[in-house]
Amino acid sequence: MRALENPTPAQAARLAEIEAAALAAVDRPAALGPDIDITRFKTVSEHDRVGSIESIERQIRETALMSGFTSDESERSASYFQLDRTPIYERVMAAFDGQVEVMSTEDALRAYPDEMLDKWFWRAVDPGKDKYTALVALHWTEGYFIRVKAGARVDKPIQACLFVSESNVSQNVHNIIVIEDGATANVITGCNIHTDVKEGLHAGISEFYVGKGAHLTFSMVHNWADEFSVRPRTGVVIEEDGTYVNNYVLLKPVKSLQAFPVAKCVGARSRAVFNSIVYGIGDSVIDLGSETQLIGEGSRSEAVARTVSKDRSVVYSRGRLVGKTDLCKAHLDCRGIVASRESTQWAIPDLVSEGAPGAELSHEAAISPIAQDGVYYLMSRGVPEDEAVSLITRGFVNIEIPGLPDALRRQIDRAIEETSADAM
Fold first, then answer.
1. DSSP string, 58-99
2. How many CA atoms lie within 13 A of 5 on its CB side?
3. Segments making up each domain of the chain, as ranges
4. Which pTM was predicted?
5. Given a cut of 50, is residue 219 above it in pLDDT?
6. Would you say the C-alpha torsion 12, 17, 20, 25 has a positive or negative sign?
């Protein structure tokens, strides 16, 4: 755990509390997902900062584009790019100066120590949850801090990229996003690795704080490799009349990925939405889900998961809704297509009412092959079989994500078409 220079007694006490919780969890395996020997990985390297996105190596820029990070900032309000452990580029466009703050989490801790420690730093995620949270707390390698000021309507997406350029390393990032009261923002963030990287670990802590009447759309695109492991840990707090929308896309193979973000709708009429598009490819082991705790009166939640598994992949799709007030309503919609006899899918809905007999919680869960009646119908209209399968699969995973570059949209379409070819 990095310490502040000359912290006050209160600051020192809070930092010591975080460190103690993490130290108690250094050997604690996660409740879900394959266990990983984290001692095998070294710390990521430092790099020089750059003055423009164009100064970043071309191959890195092109890879980052496939997760939504574009070099053309004319349609972005702000950018953050981290290479291994160094935030090499940060910029807020002039039109949004005073409305948006973007910097590394460490810089934010130095700039706003009291506010960070009191409100946001390790407040939505427990540093002692498991050995991956402990790894980030004790061996922190930056991450981004994004704040949108109260009342600001940021009409162009904020973009962030966390990039790993080395093999056999562990990137341990801590991200914090704060959307103040009445503000609106769309954040597109991607995690990528260099094409030469084979093995490694990404441990990411993300904390989101959505203020009263605020709205955050957060889209995450993951771009990994066959031997790379990923362990995100996410906590979300949503205040009165606030809305949080999470879009998640995984199109590439990964050795193992396990994530289960938890959103707390603490304010009246608060809302959480989770959308995910997941492709299990190769020998990937993917364990994904979400939990929404409906605490404030009139709080709502929707979770939509679309999963396609092929090859020898194993995919778990989990969803948990916890009603804690009579006046709440939530629904899970979890559907999967199995495109290979060697792949395995699990759909695991979980509904909980805690002292809330009036809570309305529901779910739909289904795992199936491509709908043959739909294929036959399209073929009867003159559509070739392969194209019919592609059209049905594309419609199956069609979740609109605002602000993505055209190149990434085309990549999603190509991934759908490639998977469809093996789905019959």
1. HHHHHHHHTTT--S-GGG-SEEEEEETTEEEEEEE-GGGBTT
2. 4
3. 9-259, 370-424
4. 0.92
5. yes
6. negative
